[in-house]
Amino acid sequence: MDRAHQTFGPAVAVLLVTCLSTSGQPPMGWNSYDNIDGYSIMMNETAVLQIAAAQKSQLLPFGYDHLVLDGGWFWNITANAPVLDGFGRPLPDPKRFPSSVGTNGLEILARQVHVLGLKFGVWFLRGIPVQAVKAKVRIYGTNYTADQIAVLATQCSWDNMNYGINTSHPAAMYYYRSITDMFSSWGVDFVKADCFYGGEIHKDEVALFSQAVSETTGTITLSYSPGNKANVTIAQWLVDNSYAAMYRITADTWDSWTGADGIAKQFPAAAAHAKLIGVGDSYPDLDLLPLGHLGHESGPNSPPRLTRLTSVEQRTAMTLWCMARSPLMFGGKLPTDDTTLGLLTHMELLRLHQFSTGNRQVYQDGDAVVWHAVSTKPVALLEHYVAFFNLAVDHSLTVAVNFTDIGLASGEMYSVIDAWDSSNLGLYKDMFSATVYARGSGLYRIIQDMVLAT
């Protein structure tokens, strides 16, 4: 039914919390972007259901409950153009998603994903499709047309499918609301909204789209990306306005240590944004975990392969993501191998990720980095986490932490336990140090138990 007489609130209104995750914990799940089975034109309904079944079996018991279709679910391969309805809204390609034929959209697929106990997410690109603008299609619920709200100058710099939107136009909210209402009617639980955030921040469209999500009929967890050139000032603005549950703070991350897409670049970004972890139940996002089998058939992220990260680097990535309480979105192939599964489902790492507070970088001294957090579900009288990192590429380092720097009393004895293998490293007073391999890490639980306390 047309919403010709529906009234929408102003774009800058303070949002309801329905656009946020209300779990009190960072979102977890699987995203299709990093692997060949799920990416773009390779994605199809059969593959998604197979992946969903594997996710239910391997990852859902550990909290990875979101399945997110990244870019390409709406792409017509033959026409090399997006599939759109008569109002310029993206629809799944019926050749690859046969259950979408007619007016179903992704509703039937979402229902099948929900039956497995998973939440269903989709990717959306900022703006309105060029194809819709050229055709001057009508905006749902209005007599305005797409060309009247389009802003050619704010087209996404890395994806020319859409033009930006003039948020001051009365039909702008109608368009974004028609998108979020359609997603909600399909049963979409999560939206990855791209080209809104980062280096080419579009605050007016962030505000408008966030309001559309918050006012739609269902509860949708909203994620903004990409994070290239993101900074704490922008993130603070996003958090202050309750605009999203998660937001990228770096550019895409792949399976390398150095470079613009490497793991090392995450450390300064994570440290800078640590003060915002969990504020308003929102979380800085370090991007997909580049583990397992990943890669595309062509382009800069080809070929398909096992992750190029060494076992040491993989453990370092998992330690940082969990210590910084980044959303844990796995990007690799499902089902995955036992080694990768062991990293993703390590119970102590997940306990840190889900049940800790005060997560912060204590210091960086050259290549030595120390992080600290306090357990919110301690197994003893007191339980802290300390992570050591060595960012050097070719030599080991001795990394240390003074207990007083993490809020522990001087002169007291504390047990130090290796969080990865649960080995008890002994009793320590005032400080603890360990040798850390190049590009490596250590994660430790520092405990004062009842016996020691008395």
Keywords for this entry:
single chain, 23% helix, elongated, alpha/beta, disordered N terminus, 11 helices, 454 residues, six-stranded antiparallel β-sheet
Low-confidence residue ranges: 1-22
Radius of gyration: 23 Å
Q: Quick one: how many beta strands?
A: 23
Average residue-wise pLDDT: 91
Report on the structure:
The chain has 454 residues and is α/β, with parallel strands linked by helices. 23% of the residues lie in helices and 24% in strands. β3 and β4 form a beta hairpin. It is elongated, with a radius of gyration of 23 Å.
Strand and helix map with partners:
Blueprint: E1 28-31, H1 45-58, E2 66-69, E3 75-76, E4 81-82, H2 107-115, E5 119-125, E6 128-129, H3 130-135, E7 150-151, E8 162-165, H4 172-186, E9 190-194, H5 203-215, E10 221-224, H6 232-240, E11 246-248, H7 266-273, E12 283-285, E13 293-294, E14 305-306, H8 311-323, E15 328-330, H9 338-344, H10 347-354, E16 356-365, E17 368-375, E18 382-390, E19 397-402, E20 413-418, E21 424-429, E22 431-436, E23 441-448, H11 450-453
Parallel strand pairs: 1-2, 1-15, 2-5, 5-9, 9-10, 10-11, 11-12
Antiparallel strand pairs: 3-4, 6-8, 7-8, 13-14, 16-17, 17-18, 18-23, 19-22, 20-21, 20-23
Helix pairs in contact: 4-5, 8-10
Write a brief caption for the model.
This protein is an alpha/beta fold and 454 residues long. The chain contains 11 helices and 23 strands. The strands form 6 sheets. Strands 12-11-10-9-5-2-1-15 form an 8-stranded parallel sheet.
